[in-house]
Design a protein that fits this description.
Structural class: mainly alpha
Radius of gyration: 16 Å
CATH architecture: Orthogonal Bundle
Shape: globular
Strand content: under 5%
Largest sheet: none
CATH class: Mainly Alpha
CATH topology: Arp2/3 complex 21 kDa subunit ARPC3
Distance between the termini: 13 Å
Length: about 180
């Protein structure tokens, strides 16, 4: 069975979605001190760039984010609480979807716009979450929270994510 036949198999897709979700959750929880704060670098966000390679990765990172935020609440490491399960997961879904939609927009063959999607979406949505929870809804604090989240996303998605995804894109594994 070649890669094309495997990737069209529903079982194969479900396995890949499950693996992405599990990796996202484990990486996030292992780095919980970096994953859950206003200045956060959630290295699992690198996986948000996988939709550049295949669209069903959107569901893997979305499920992984939901499980991470749920377990974060249960383990008392996610200070944003249950609101993060909804809005944090929504942010990841939107970012992963835009990553997929913008996958062919390249600057010198680099999927810059795709990597920018998680930076912008998480900066906005998680920035608003943090403003609501930690800033008591004081919108003057929003730019600070949004920039802090965006910086973490730049580190994860652009500094580490782009080189990783470009190596994967050119590897034989996806041929």
């Amino acid at each position: 069975m070649n890669m094309s036949q495997r990737s069209n198999s529903i079982v194969y897709r479900l396995v890949v979605i499950s693996l992405i979700s599990a990796i996202y959750t484990v990486v996030s929880l292992l780095g919980a001190t970096l994953s859950f704060s206003n200045i956060q670098v959630r290295f699992a966000e690198i996986l948000c760039l996988l939709p550049i390679l295949f669209p069903w990765a959107i569901w893997g990172v979305t499920l992984g984010c939901f499980l991470t935020n749920l377990l974060g609440v249960i383990l008392s490491v996610n200070a944003l609480g249950f609101i993060d399960m909804i809005f944090g997961t929504l942010a990841t879904f939107i970012a992963a979807y835009l990553t997929y939609r913008w996958r062919n927009v390249r600057i010198k063959n680099i999927p810059f716009l795709s990597a920018l999607a998680p930076v912008l979406i998480n900066g906005l949505i998680i920035g608003l979450e943090l403003t609501y929870v930690f800033g008591n809804g004081d919108l003057t604090l929003f730019p600070i929270f949004a920039i802090e989240v965006a910086i973490g996303e730049i580190i994860a998605c652009m500094i580490f994510g782009i080189p990783i995804i470009m190596k994967l894109e050119h590897s034989k594994i996806f041929k």
